[in-house]
Amino acid sequence: MFSFIHSSSVLGVEGKGIAVEVDIASGLPQVSVVGLPDPAVRESVERVRAAIKNSGFTFPLDRITVNLAPADLRKEGTAFDLAIAAGILTASGQLEAWPFNNTMLIGELSLNGEVKPVPGVLAMIEQAKRSGIRKVLLPLANAKEAAWIMDMELYAITQLKDLVLESKGEEAWTAIRFDAVSSRADTTAVDAVEHSEVYGDYSDVYGQQQAKRALLIAAAGKHNIMFAGPPGTGKTMMIRRLPGILPPLTEEEALEVTKIYSAAGKLSTDAQGLIRTAPFRSPHHTISAGGLIGGGSVPKPGEVTLAHHGVLYLDELPEFSRQVLEVLRQPLEDGIVTIARSRAVFHFPAKLMLAVSFNPCPCGYAGHETAEKRCTCSDSSIAKYRSKMSGPLLDRIDIQLEVPRPIELESPVNQAAAMSSAEIRTQVLGARNRREQRNIELGLKTDKRLSGAALRRSILMKEAAFSLLDNALTVLNISMRAYDRILKLSRTIADVEGCEYVEDVHVAEAIQYRRLDI
């Protein structure tokens, strides 16, 4: 007696089709799970046994072999429970096999037969659609998440005993069919709440007009940004308000981000709709390299991937391990993390804005001394402190700005007139729209990171601006990477100003943002 059930697993952030094959033969009662299962999969035998018995079925007292194919790929997680149970029930003749043809089953079982939600459902169903499977039987708690994959027939159950419906004919499917179209229409956007209520408003920040201007430019062009300055100048406060001026994610971006959070097990089953606000991640400085870029025997997404299409904020940058910081080089350059294992290579998306802040020395007052606060650090301790930040890493940060202590507070009148996050966000949207329209007119892909000839084609630049930039390359001895980044930054500044051509004033402003190069 043999049965075949489609199931799925998550590798990295992508789904992988898994075939659950069950064979029941005469012999001593024994259940063997083969196909490189991890402990959670091996333990599924006891969960499935209890769930079958407590749902009114009979667990076969024969030799049962469960094979998870492909056999050379390590399997982990609890998403196979429902498929294994269905395979045993069909192989033993307690359920008919035909309803499960071309149907993918995913779900975890509790001992009483309850079908519980599993992480990574979006990635699994997307993979099923690519492989030609159109029917999915899944936990009811995962159904709203799954509904965002179009053109799929979803059947949601809460108990293992609900499978008995499938033996009563084709019309029985309608009893557990989930209305995906209505679910998508009824969900509300995640970003319905005002950004200022979640992140705070820039109108609350006293002074620091240049820093706010830098954040506007960074948000408009998705540029990496660094703030350096003494304690208490508002570096952290301003960067934490950065998501409030970012535009909402597009439908495609929202689906990508939601799929990542689903695969990482960080998507709540109570979530209403896709994640439409840009992610903001701020890991502690004790994080490991694996926690930052992803890792494990079967790699899981790290913080850089969880910040995809959003912001990764590293507060007090020199407190991070240098080894940890160096792993950021490839993601910042390529927008992707590649992790190789003996059996597979995993790719994680990582198109993000890096925002960092730090003090000039361990005590925080070097170069910013006052009568009350004097720097107590030696030259060697300052050098050691700053050595955590390597030149190649700093070269990848477009905006490097010193944030001094305000000399005097703004008057209440000027503070009331300060731009709010909503007004800054409007400027960010305008700049991005101008860039996208220009790239469309030039035949360039708007979602691609431009470089080389494509970058220069996209930048309409006046001769005086080119001369200034070439002169900076010689006089300031900047790298060619920094040259390209200044070029992109100049183009963004021109877009913020609503200018078709990049002028020398835009280049001059971009150059002065590279303080650590100067």
| Fraction of residues in β-strands | 15-25%
Number of helices: 22
What general outline do the C-alpha atoms trace? elongated
Overall pLDDT level: 86
Computed structural class? alpha/beta
- Cα Rg: 28 Å
Uncertain spans? 188-194
Structural topology:
Layout: E1 2-11, E2 14-25, E3 30-34, H1 39-42, H2 44-54, E4 63-69, H3 81-91, E5 103-105, E6 108-109, E7 115-116, H4 121-130, E8 135-139, H5 143-146, E9 153-157, E10 177-178, H6 180-186, H7 195-199, H8 209-221, E11 225-228, H9 235-240, H10 251-263, E12 280-281, H11 289-293, E13 294-295, E14 300-301, H12 303-306, E15 311-315, H13 322-326, H14 329-334, E16 336-340, E17 345-349, E18 353-358, H15 379-386, H16 391-395, E19 399-402, H17 412-416, H18 421-441, H19 452-458, H20 463-475, H21 480-497, H22 504-512
Parallel strand pairs: 3-4, 5-8, 8-9, 11-18, 11-19, 12-15, 15-18
Antiparallel strand pairs: 1-2, 2-4, 6-7, 9-10, 13-14, 16-17
